[in-house]
C-alpha cells in the first residue's frame, strides 16, 4: 500500500471491506513517515501514540461507509490548534504551546473519524512563501531537495507530495495553500472566504485567512472540503449558506464552460516556461469543449501592495496578543512590565514577522492611515470589481499560480520584495474572497507547475468540476517526486 | 509624501508602538527594507480611487450585520483551568505570575 497508487475512494473501499484496518493504515503511515521525512522536514511533530489509539477505537466501532475520511491518516498545518497536541505556528513564541481546545476544522475531522498523524512545518505565523521563515525547521521540496517547498503551507504540501499522507490541511492568506501545492505538484484549494470556519486558526490576517485541503487528486480534495466546510457559531464570518456535495459534479463534462484567461496573468513577468505549460492547459480545456478567451483584471497588478498593507495591518493587530504574559515565550531577566512585552516580542518573533508588524503598525499610524491603509482598502474594492465584471460573462478564470517554479533554498530569503512578488497571481483571489485552486499542469525543467482556477464566491463546485476534467485528461497527477516517490 | 519615505527615527517610533526593540544593526537593516517596501506601496497613489469605498472586511449576505452569538458566560472546569495555567511562562499559587508593574530598575523610565 502506498498513497501513490491509492486515493481516498479506494482506501475507503478497502477499509469498509475490512481488507485494511485503520490501525494497519496508521502503522504503515508512521513507518513511511519516519523513512521519508528526515530528508524533507514536512512535520514538526508526530502524533503517533494518540493516532494509533484513535485508529484502534475507529476499528473497534467499525468504519462508517458514508464517511470517506474514516480511519484515514491526515496532517494538519501547525497554525491550526489541536487540543493537547503542541501547536507552534513554527514560532519560537509558541514553541511549547499546548492548546486547550480544538479548531472547528479539527473537531470536524475527529467527528468524521479521521486520524491526525502530525503537525506540518510552515513559515512562522504563515508569513512567507518558502517555509524558510520557520523558526523550528527547514523543509525541502521532494522534487529537488535543494529547492524550497513554497509556503506558507510548505510542510502540508510536501507531506502529500511525498506520499506521507493522502490529505493535509493548510491555510491560505495570500497564496499559502495554492503556491506550495503548485511547487509540489499537488492539488490545493483555498475555499471562498467564509466557507470554512477560522475558529482555532492562529490569526494572521482575519479578512483574508482561510483553511483548505491539499491532496494528490481533485476528487480527494473535494471529499476533504466536504468534511471541513460549513457554518460555525464561533466564527462571525463563517457563511450560513448550504454546503453542496463538492464531489457531485465530477463527470469530466465541461462542454460549453466559459473561461477567462487574464492577460495580466500571462505577461512578460511570468517565466516563459510557466506560460508554455499554461498555454498547453488552455488547449486541453478547448479540446474538452470549453471556450477560453482573454480577459483583463486591470487592478490585479496593485494587489501585492494593497495586500501587504492590509495583511500586515491586520497582523500587527492580531499579534498584539503575544505579550509574554499568559502563554508563549517570555524573555528572561526582565525588570518591569514594559520589558516583558518588548523583550519577549523582540526575542520571540522572527524577522519576517517583525517586518509585517512594523509595516502594519506604520500603515495604521497617525498621518499614514489614509495614504496607506484606507487607500489599500479602496484598491481592494477595485480588484473585487474587476473580478465581478469578468464573472458577469465567464464561469471561471484560469492562469498560472506562480510566476516561476520552485526556487532554490536561500535565493530569495534576503530580499523581501522578491519574495512578496511570488504571490502576485494568488493575492487578488484572497483580497476578493474568491475560491482558488491549484491543479498540477505540467513541468518546467522537471519542476511542477500549477494551473490556477478561480471561481465566483461560493462556487468551488465549478473549480472541482473543471479541475477534475483536466486531471482526467492529463497524466501530471500520476508523476511522483524523487523523494518519497520511489516507495 | 516626502522624498524620504521612512528614516531610522521613524522606524524607532513605530517599533515603540509595536512593542519591539531593535539593535543598531537591526535598525539599519529594517529601515532599508521598510523604505523599499513602502516605496513599492507608493504605486497605489497612482490609482484613481475618487468616490471608491474602501473594503475592510468581506461579508456574506447569509449573515446579518451583527452576527454575534449571545454574550453568555460558560463555566469551565478545573481541568481547563489547569491546562490554561500550564501554558503560562511563570505561575504561583494557581495564578499567572508577572514582574512587578512598578518599575524597580531605578533608572527612572
TrEMBL record, chain A:
Per UniProt, which keywords does this protein have?
Answer: ATP-binding, Ligase, Nucleotide-binding, Protein biosynthesis
Q: Looking at the keywords, is Magnesium present? A: no
Q: Which Pfam families match?
A: Amidase
Q: What is its EC number?
A: 6.3.5.7
Record's keyword annotation contains RNA-binding: no
Family affiliation: Belongs to the amidase family. GatA subfamily.
Q: What does this protein do?
A: Allows the formation of correctly charged Gln-tRNA(Gln) through the transamidation of misacylated Glu-tRNA(Gln) in organisms which lack glutaminyl-tRNA synthetase. The reaction takes place in the presence of glutamine and ATP through an activated gamma-phospho-Glu-tRNA(Gln).
Q: Which PANTHER family match?
A: GLUTAMYL-TRNA(GLN) AMIDOTRANSFERASE SUBUNIT A, TRANSAMIDASE
Name the chain's protein.
Glutamyl-tRNA(Gln) amidotransferase subunit A
Automatic annotation (TrEMBL), chain B:
| Recorded catalytic activity of this chain's protein | L-aspartyl-tRNA(Asn) + L-glutamine + ATP + H2O = L-asparaginyl-tRNA(Asn) + L-glutamate + ADP + phosphate + 2 H(+); L-glutamyl-tRNA(Gln) + L-glutamine + ATP + H2O = L-glutaminyl-tRNA(Gln) + L-glutamate + ADP + phosphate + H(+)
Keywords for the protein's UniProt record, in alphabetical order: ATP-binding, Ligase, Nucleotide-binding, Protein biosynthesis
Entry superkingdom: Bacteria
Which N-terminal stretch is annotated as signal sequence? none
Enzyme class name: ligase
Q: Tell me how this protein assembles.
A: Heterotrimer of A, B and C subunits.
Summarizing the function annotation, the protein's role is: Allows the formation of correctly charged Asn-tRNA(Asn) or Gln-tRNA(Gln) through the transamidation of misacylated Asp-tRNA(Asn) or Glu-tRNA(Gln) in organisms which lack either or both of asparaginyl-tRNA or glutaminyl-tRNA synthetases. The reaction takes place in the presence of glutamine and ATP through an activated phospho-Asp-tRNA(Asn) or phospho-Glu-tRNA(Gln).
Protein family according to the UniProt entry: Belongs to the GatC family.
Q: What is this protein called?
A: Aspartyl/glutamyl-tRNA(Asn/Gln) amidotransferase subunit C
Species of origin reads: Lactiplantibacillus modestisalitolerans
Annotated gene: gatC
